[in-house]
Design goal:
The complex is a heterodimer of chains A (113) and B (112). Chain A is mainly β and 113 residues long. Chain A contains no helices and twelve strands. In chain A, the strands form three sheets. In chain A, strands 2, 5, 6, 10, 11 and 12 form a six-stranded mixed β-sheet that branches. A four-stranded antiparallel β-sheet of chain A has the order 3-9-8-7, with no helix packed on it. A two-stranded antiparallel sheet of chain A has the order 1-4. Chain B contains no helices and eleven strands. Classes of the chains: A mainly beta (113), B mainly beta (112).
Amino acid sequence: AQSVTQLDSQVPVFEEAPVELRCNYSSSVSVYLFWYVQYPNQGLQLLLKYLSGSTLVKGINGFEAEFNKSQTSFHLRKPSVHISDTAEYFCAVTKTSYDKVIFGPGTSLSVIP
Amino acid sequence: ETGVTQSPTHLIKTRGQQVTLRCSSQSGHNTVSWYQQALGQGPQFIFQYYREEENGRGNFPPRFSGLQFPNYSSELNVNALELDDSALYLCASASGGGTEAFFGQGTRLTVV
């Protein structure tokens, strides 16, 4: 079975500062990894995904994530955050494109002006 | 744009009632999954349907049931509603040839 841990439930950061949201996963098989963003009162939007190949993945809105197999991590980073990045961020894992998705508990990113 | 649509967007029900939520999957997708997202939590897998058959179930009681139709659209039914059923319900569709599931915007259910 797979599981996902997001170590920080809340991350406050000043505008234009860099941010890293941490994600660790557990799985006995190869997995696909995802980061989703959820704005207040909205559904999930895919930020980026790792399927295979290059361990550095670039997504939308200037976000990127690095897959580290030895540390079973998939941390999300952005070099300079904007007020509009304030949202809930979910790390997720699945075995295949059509298998159930296992989500972490989420990290609430608050960007301070 | 995902192409997965859910209805209704918001719903208020009374404890003990029954509710049906609907999901129209993205064109060409034959797998539909449902998730429950309680306030302040990550989405939790309820069940999945593949070609009209249930194909996996999470830790939810039998009063959560579903259907998938020949056009691959789907329904989630919840009987005997409880206050803790208040949540955002998300539908996702996928196909074997794709790389990820696509999520709808969800139905916000409030049980009073």
